[in-house]
Amino acid sequence: MPTVLRVAVPVPLPQLFDYLPPVDVDAAALIPGCRVLVPFGRTRRVGVLLEIARESNVPSHRLKPALMLLDAQPLLDAELLCSLMWAARYYQYPLGAVLECALPIGLRQAKPLPAAGERALALTETGAAASPAGKPTARTNLLLQILAQGPRTYPELDNALPGWRAAATSLRKRDLIVGITLTTRARPHMPMIGPPLNVEQQHAVDEIDAAHGRFAPFVLEGVTGSGKTEVYLALIEQALARGQQALILVPEIGLTPQILRRFRERLPCAVHALHSGLSDGERTRTWLAAARGEAQVILGTRSAIFTPLPRAGLIVIDEEHDASYKQQEGFRYHARDFALVRARSLNVSVVLGSATPSLETLANVETGRYRCLPLRERAGAARMPIPRIVDLRGQRLQHGLSTELIRAIRDCIGRGEQALVFKNRRGYAPVLLCHGCGWTATCTRCNKPLTLHRRENRLRCHHCGADRPVPIACPECQGTQLQTQGQGTEKLEDMLIELFPHVAVVRIDRETTRRKDSLEQLFAQLTPDQPGILIGTQMLAKGHDLPNLTLVAIVGVDEGLFSHDFRAGERMGQLVVQVAGRAGRARKPGTVWLQTHHPEHPLLLTLLRRGYRELAAQILDERRGAGFPPHTHLALLRADASSLAPLQEFLDRATTLASTADKNLQALGPMPAPMPRRAGRERAQLLLLADQRSTLQTFLPAWLNQLRALPEAKRVRWSLDVDPVDLY
Ligand SMILES: Nc1ncnc2c1ncn2[C@@H]1O[C@H](COP(=O)(O)OP(=O)(O)OP(=O)(O)O)[C@@H](O)[C@H]1O
Ligand SMILES: [Zn+2]
User: What ipTM was predicted for this assembly?
Assistant: First the structure.
């Protein structure tokens, strides 16, 4: 009887595919978890061997042999494979595609594995002989100077010279330096000693440590600046002392060089980063080093949750409420939720840290599934900032800022301190209109106003990326009275520079941080003991620790108070608390100014008078009444097409199939998406809602098969999102 290989192939089909073993391969070498190169249609794909079977449903004359076995050892261990199979089932995404997503890009191809060791840079002979040219402070020269002392690994360079990557590229082109691989060496490294833990921190560490060796979920609910990171560091040290690995996830924007540096300074071993700013090769090496158990501490963003952890000791999800943990396209997993699945199968503790835990997590605390460990006070001498509301009604505003607030910023600067002005809108102004005829610059592909970006003199659509020049005259009436309405970060920047010409004003948003390393360079423009002003979007909400920052002004929360999204209130609360949390983190006390036209809004009042936990309790109650998560469970079928008719037909069919299936399942829709048109495509959706997760999980696979078979499905683009975070 033939041996049949059951292979997960990265294609958008849910089933596994059967192949014969590659010729000349010993049966003993065929181990589940190894990659195989297989023919697929007219192409070749790298799949993962999952099972070795005795027979196949495919007639034997149609079975093709796999072309090559790519690994001598399974690349995916049993735990990771098993967890990923769970994810494929739970998120209703084809297993082959899930596995492909979990592997770093370097391993998705049929290439030999890179050599073990760490990537490093060294001088070439030419480089060693070269004499410095250009400015002595130029990064290229600094990099040459560092390498003159010997080869340096990438993490060492991260520490020594932010922005070294661009310099390295130019030096490589000139043949002055080369990339080399150093065999992992025990780096003599004396970690810095941290502050002694306070009582609550120590208690958290003790409780989590006492649970080691089994699955135990914890919520570290620590107010901003309470020293959560110190708790993580202490727990990681304990894992290291037991010879175990620790995986720490941080939000996308949270993985700044600052946090990496802090971990590297404090831990006695190498800290491996995994994020999108690294080259494919670096990510592959780190992944493999983790798979061999050599990489002990891995600090990464969302997809780092797929790191193999054969010696797992601890998983930490920092800022667990952050929306960037949810993948918004393709395989729509939630890294926090998947972390719990992995922690369970690895038998380790998982720590969800946040000052503003998500309502899902708080609901799990309520039911006793997760244990909550609070850090109620700020660490060291710091105190929580004092909140103030500025009632904007009837006030005269200067580009959106009240006189009272401008005075407070002036006082702050006068004391030699720093202020942060938060506005969640990039660009100069969100609307450009003609005062003569009322024409508004609009994106025709999205039916939304275009944002004026005055620095580049462009009109941009923040939904589809469309970009065009700013007209000199109104295209409708040829009038020249084009005016802006509202303000974005650029406009605020202009105004603050005008008001405070002698103070460093730094804008932080997607425009100013486009290049790698730019975030850190921008922060470097603020001298710690000098006055300064930061302006920015939600990028500023996370993880930054500026000791001289004492005033935070939040100048646009009103959008969050009246949104139709059921999560808007929760998000508003999290954002306000996190942004406010940047103030007064050291010795100097901080103040938070909140400008609003709705000072009596109940959500805002609860937040300010009674804090985030009370706000969360209030919203949880509302959601219970409305039947929304976390009390119920959702799946969202999204579809888009170039015209409305096929969209309607597809979603009508989908709705009919869903509404007769199970009385415990509610189908809401079809309805237009909150953004009914985007990038020239019509968009609509169907929301499925059930009290029990299992109702959805039982229903979805069969329904998806029916959908795939519909002729209507071929005429639209569609996707399913289990536990959607955004309903857009
Ligand atoms: N036990 C302690 N004694 C003195 N200082 C401490 C202690 N723990 C932490 N700190 C200091 O307090 C500051 C805030 O700590 P940390 O960044 O760990 O807080 P956090 O809770 O992670 O903050 P956030 O969530 O707001 O970013 C840091 O400067 C840290 O060095
Ligand atoms: Zn658009």
Answer: 0.97
What sign has the CA pseudo-torsion 612, 613, 616, 621? Answer: negative
DSSP code of 197?
A: P
From the alpha carbon of 201, which atom of ligand 1 is closest? 1
pTM: 0.90
3-state secondary structure at position 170: helix
Question: What residues have CB less than 8 Å from 547, skipping those under 6 apart?
Answer: 528, 585, 586, 587, 588
Closest ligand to residue 448's CA:
2
Q: pLDDT of 56-108, one tens digit each?
A: 888 888 899 999 999 988 999 999 999 999 999 999 999 999 999 999 999 99
Looking at domain 633-722, its CATH superfamily turns out to be Ribosomal protein S10 (3.30.70.600)
Which ligand 1 atom is the nearest neighbour of the CA of 544? 27
Does the domain at 4-107 match CATH 3.40.1440.60? Answer given as: yes
Asked if residues 307 and 340 have their Cβ atoms less than 8 Å apart, the reply is no
* Residues pairing with 638 in the sheet: 685, 719
**Which residue from 193, 8, 162, 194 is spatially nearest to 84, judged by alpha carbons?**
8
Q: Which atom of ligand 1 is nearest to the CA of 543?
A: 27
Q: Which of 193, 199, 228, 230 to mutate to test the pocket of ligand 1 (most atoms within 8 A of CB)?
A: 230
Q: Which of 153, 241, 230, 158 is nearest to 199 (CA)?
A: 230
- DSSP conformation class of 509: S
Query: 466 C-alpha to center of ligand 2: Å?
Result: 5
pLDDT tens digits, one per residue of 134-156 = 677 788 888 888 888 888 888 78
Distance of CA 464 to the CA centre of its chain: 20
Domain ranges of the chain: 4-107, 118-125+135-182, 199-375, 386-427+488-624, 431-485, 633-722
Q: Which residues line ligand 1 (CB under 6 A)?
A: 195-198, 201, 222, 224-230, 355, 379-380, 543, 545, 581
Helix (H, G, I), strand (E, B) or coil at 597: coil
* SS3 of 605-648: HHHHHHCHHHHHHHHHHHHHHHCCCCCCEEEEEEEEECCHHHHH
**Which residue's CA is minimally distant from atom 8 of ligand 1?**
227
Q: How far is CA 606 from CA 616, 619, 665, in A?
A: 9, 10, 34
> Which residues are registered as beta bridge partners of 506?
534
- Asked whether residue 437 is marked as a ligand-binding residue, the answer is yes
pLDDT band at 132 (very low <50, low <70, confident <90, very high): low
Give Cα 270 distance to the centre of its chain: 23
Q: Using the 8-state DSSP alphabet, how is residue 255 labeled?
A: -
